[in-house]
Structure formats: C-alpha cells, structure tokens
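User: Predict the structure for this protein chain, please.
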Amino acid sequence: MKKYLILIVATLLLLSCSHGSTKNFPTVAEPSKSAEVFVIRNNNLFGWGFSLEVLLNKTVIAKLRSGEHISFYVEPGFHTIGTKQSQANAPVEEKKKYYFLISADTTQYGFEIMRISNEKGEAWLTRTKAVK
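Assistant: Here is the predicted structure, written as structure tokens:
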C-alpha cells in the first residue's frame, strides 16, 4: 500500500512541473507591426508527464506540456524557434502568423519541431490548450 501511495505522489509531482511563459517571454513595442508566432506541442502520449522548454533565439521563453500551445509576437527578421533538442530557423514578416508543431520522433533527440501551414496550425489550436 505504501508503494502505491509513493507512486501516486511521485506522479502528481511530475504532473505539476511548471508550465507556461517564463521571465524571458518576448514582448514587442508594437504588436501591430510584428509577426505572431504559435508554438504547439502535440497531445501525444510520449512525454506527456513533463514540460518541454520552448526556445526563441536560444533563450527559454516557455514550458509546454503535451496538448498545449503558446503564442507571442516577434519583430520581423530571422528567428530560431524550437527546443533544446531541435530548432527551426524562420524568417518572419510583419503582420503574418507562423505555426510550429513540436512532436515526438524516433531519433536520439526525442522531439522535433517543424513549421506547419496556417490551416494545420489553426486546426491544432482547436485541439490544444493555450497557456500564458
């Protein structure tokens, strides 16, 4: 009985890992002249018990759990978006939206990020939860 209690407590602690934005979350002076970026973590069972760090230009800006997404604005220009294991480089233009999907893969890294179309991105947003 004691082993089950320890297992339950450990699981709850694991699930309570912090998620959402960090102190390095990007802000822009004029969102109307910026690009909006969405980073979506698919709701795959692989890795569902922990938060995955999201990086913008090699700085951790957020932590996402399985089935969550985050959005933010960036100045137009070239940006690197991803995780510690996988990054995508993207030139972004003002007043446009960009969608990136983080999903489990079978490589040594465990997760990959890729840019997806606006249509697929909007569909993923309806199936995931927004976090701040």
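Residues 7-16 have pLDDT under 50 and may be disordered.
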